[in-house]
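Table S2 (text version). Query chain:
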Amino acid sequence: MTPTTKLEAINIMLSTIGETPVNSLNSGLVDAEMAETMLANISKSVQGEGWHFNREEAFPVSPNVSGEVIIPSNTLRADASLAANSKDLIQRGTRMYDKKNHTYNIGETVKLDLIIELDFTELPEVARRYIAIKAARVFQDRVVGSDSLHGFTIQDEAAAYFQLKEFELDTEDFNIMDNYDVYRVLDRTGYARST
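Corresponding structure-token output:
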């Protein structure tokens, strides 16, 4: 089975409103253009949640000649890594801002935790399917507004989301000892005995 293409996703969306499939992304069909725009918006929204496949941790970003740290253009969210020399950096527009010193002039390379937007073709298949099905539901709701079709697509969307979350758990390689809050709870008894 080959991964879902952007064209296939758009045709899934068109099918929910009873429109015939298109053969190319440049079909000139108004509904297909609306579907492509909505697919891009839904993709950005889903990716904005931050998944293992589109998260970069401790990504080094060097300042420009003005000392400003400009985040990569495909960044949806950026935050200073915990190892960022205790600087309180936040994203403002396309730059990082030092809240402690009230300046954009960071002056040094910093490590950022980034959520980046990937092109549809770079997404894992499970994410492509979920985005296509969610976009189809939203598209149908806005164009036709059929309650019976909404119920059908919401079930498909829930199943696809479950598969995406399962994929996340499989690829994330979670370990309870990686989480400070969990470790603190587990370590309470040992701490209590030593005091």
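Notes on Table S2: The mean pLDDT is 87. Residues 6-50+119-172 form one domain.
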